[in-house]
Amino acid sequence: MSSTPLRSPALRPHRMKKDESFLGKLGGTLARKKKAKEVSDLQEEGKNAINLPMSPASVEIHPEDTLLEENQERTVIDPTSRDDPRFKELVKVLIDWVNDVLVGERIIVKQLEEDLYDGQVLQKLLEKLADCKLNVAEVTQSEIGQKQKLQTVLQAVQELLRPHGRALQWTVDSIHGKNLVAILHLLVALAMHFRAPIRLPEHVSVQVVVIRKREGLLHSSHVTEELTTTTEMMMGRFERDAFDTLFDHAPDKLSVVKKSLITFVNKHLNKLNLEVTELETQFADGVYLVLLMGLLEDYFVPLHNFYLTPDSFDQKVHNVSFAFELMLDGGLKKPKARPEDVVNLDLKSTLRVLYNLFTKYKHLE
Fold first, then answer.
1. Which of 352, 312, 341, 314 is nearest to 198 (CA)?
2. Nearest to residue 126, comparing CAs of 145, 102, 92?
3. Cβ contacts of residue 209 below 8 Å, gap of 6+?
4. Strand partners, 218
5. How far apart are CA 286 and CA 90, in angstroms?
6. Which three-class secondary structure state does DSSP give residue 92?
7. Coil vs helix vs strand at 281
8. What percentage of the chain exceeds 70 in pLDDT?
9. E strands of the chain, at which residues?
10. Does the pLDDT of residue 208 top 90, yes or no?
């Protein structure tokens, strides 16, 4: 007898289980796709908020730079600014300066934002520069402890700088947040205040994107941050003179001035069988300046008063400083240039010093 086979009831649970498994997998896949889309949309929102208002070149934004709390902000330096030779030089000069100051502390800074953000190095730097001792914990691992240390250090910096109402260009949060622009502003200010024996590159600016979160949405603005101006302004010498005008508006006449000064100094240095061909380099160690002053004032300078063959930056600064003292003794005004400027091959500073000598002693045969 033939009959239609009955489906085994035992197969139904198996089919249902298979269906449920399929739906479950489908649901999980949809959920994952939805989650991935949310993350993608969030990153896209961040990039659009930053890149759309920009001029053709866009800034590469890391996802973490767009994950902000309400009213929080973050800055991103434009890659073209990071690649600017003057910006790189500024960073290098400041790193070398910090390491020179802290050489006795066995501290070596390699990356400013990674090594200075927690306040430890800044504490040692300020204590060394200001010859003081800050009342802070030596080592702090927690974020709260680091920010407390930073607060103490930056408060001490503010009291030293006394900005007279000017807004400081750094905060505890920006330094601790590894904001390189804020850290550079701080170090430049310290270098200027303590008259660091370094040559900061002039007119260094960076383009930065400021990302803010307001009412749940990301907003961006583009700002030019000026990190350095001119040496005269940074070091407190705001008055302009003929050499500023010469460098800014008549650089073609610079060679004429240099030739006149070379002729003047060689007329006297030739008496010692010495000759100058490069003003900015051959006066940088101070030896020719000291000898020239002796020749111009007609006296012998004892060799124990200066380094005849200086082999360090400090020895060169000593020589130039000693030459400046001889100039004051000879009735000249205090040079506008710093000894460190001359040692650092700053042509404008060297020309100022030599021109003062030329003005007073050009009548000598």
1. 341
2. 102
3. 50, 54, 59, 75, 76, 78, 220, 221, 222, 223
4. 213
5. 26
6. helix
7. helix
8. 71
9. 73-77, 205-214, 217-226
10. no
Strands 217-226 and 73-77, by their bridges, are unpaired
For residue 232, what are its two tokens? 């005269």
Q: Which two tokens stand for residue 149?
A: 């240390």
Distance, CA of 18 to CA of 9 (rounded, Å): 15
Could you tell me the pLDDT band of residue 53, with boundaries at 50, 70 and 90? very low
Query: What digits encode the pLDDT tens for the residues 173-188?
Result: 889 989 999 999 999 9
Over residues 216-259, the pLDDT tens digits come to 777 777 888 889 877 656 655 444 455 555 555 556 677 788 88
Spatial separation of the C-alpha atoms in residues 350 and 341, rounded to whole Å = 8
* Model pLDDT, residue 291: 95
Type of residue numbered 81: S
The total number of residues written for the chain in this structure = 365
Contact criterion met (CB below 8 Å) for 274 and 288: yes
In the prediction, which pLDDT does 80 show?
85
CB 141 within 8 A of CB 111: no
The predicted pLDDT at position 285 comes to 94
Q: Are 330 and 297 in contact (CB under 8 A)?
A: yes
283-302 residues labelled b (16+ CB within 10 A) or e (exposed): bbbbbbbbbbbbbbeeeebe
Write the CA distances from 32 to 3, 18, 35, 37, integer angstroms: 48, 21, 5, 8
Q: Reduced to 3 states, what is the DSSP secondary structure of residue 222? A: strand
pLDDT at 235: 58
